[in-house]
Amino acid sequence: MSAHVPASPPKAARRLRVALIAALALFGPLAAAPAAHAAPPAATFTLEVTPTDATEGDTLIATVIGTGVSDVYAFDLVFAVTEGVLASASETPAGPAGGFTSAVDGPGTITVSHTRLGTSPGLSGEVVLATVPLRATGSGAARVELTSVRLVSSTSETVTQTAVASETVDIVALPTPTPTPTPSATPTASATASPSASSAPAASGPDDLATTGVDATPLLISGAAGVALIAAGAVFVARRRQGVRE
Questions:
Q1: What is the structure's pLDDT at 39?
Q2: H-type alpha helices, the chain
Q3: 89: which DSSP letter?
Q4: CA distance readout (Å), 132 to 1, 55, 98, 117, 148
Q5: Rounded to whole angstroms, what are the CA distances from 63 to 14, 45, 86, 122, 136?
Q6: At the top level of its lineage, which domain of life is listed (predicted)?
Q7: CB-CB contact of 132 with 103 (8 Å)
Q8: DSSP secondary structure code for residue 52 in this structure
Q9: C-alpha–C-alpha distance, residues 69 and 222, integer Å
Q10: SS3 of 98, please?
C-alpha cells in the first residue's frame, strides 16, 4: 500500500498569495498613516478692543486674531464682559469668509461660533477669527475677557483653552445737559405824561394870587370889581369933602 502524497498548490495560486503579502507590506502602513498622524488643531490668540477710551453709548469692537493656526475647521469663542457697562451690540459678529458665524448672548457673556462649509479646508496661518461689536451701556472701567476657546479640526480632533486673553477699557459717562434758562419777558416802558400848558402852574408875582390846580379867572374878576368899587368910593368921599369946604 502506497502512502498518499498531498498535491502541491498550483503555481498561479502561489504567485497570488505572494502578491497579496507584498501589497499588504507596502500599502498597509500608508493606509494607517492618516489615523496615526492626525494632529490636533492649534492656534495662538490675541484680543484687541477698540477704542480703549469711549463714551457711554459708543460702539466698541472686540477682535480675536489667531496666529499659527493649523487645521481649524470650527471653533467656539466665549467672551465675558462687565455687566452694566458693556453688552452685545445689535450688529452680528463676523467670522472668516467661507463659513457660517453665529452668536448667543447670556448674562455678561457672548458666545461666538464658526464652522467651515462643505469641502472648505481648515483655517491655517494668521486669521481674524472674529470681530464682535459691543455697546457701552454705562460708565467706568470695563473688562473684556476671552474666557474659553474650543477648536475642532477637519478630522474632528478637539482642543480647549481657558483664560485665553483679556483687555480693559475706560468708558466715560455722558455729560449732564445744562438746562437752558427760559428768557423772561422784557418790561415795556410806560409813556410818561408830559405836563400840558393848562395844567402848568402860572407864574405868580409878589402881589398876585397864587393858584395851584384851581381856575383863577373868577377870583381875578371879583378882585378887579372890588378894586373898582373902592376907587369909586374914594372919589365920592373926596368930592363930598370938597363941597363941604366950599
A1: 85
A2: 11-36, 217-245
A3: -
A4: 95, 18, 18, 21, 15
A5: 66, 10, 15, 20, 16
A6: Bacteria
A7: yes
A8: S
A9: 130
A10: coil
Amino acid letter at 81?
V
Rg (CA), the chain: 59
Cβ neighbourhood burial of 22 (10 Å; 0-12, 13-18, 19+): exposed
CATH code for the structural domain at 42-172: 2.60.40.680
Report the Cα–Cα distance between both ends of the chain, in Å, rounded: 240
Single-letter code of the amino acid located at 4: H
Four-point Cα dihedral 6, 10, 16, 22, nearest 10: 60
* C-alpha cell, 202: 402860572
Give dist(CA 166, CA 192) in Å, integer.
Answer: 78
In the chain, which ranges are E strands? 42-50, 53-55, 59-72, 74-81, 86-88, 99-106, 109-116, 123-136, 140-152, 158-172
Q: What is the pTM of this model?
A: 0.58
Query: What is d(CA 214, CA 199) in angstroms, rounded to the nearest whole number?
Result: 9
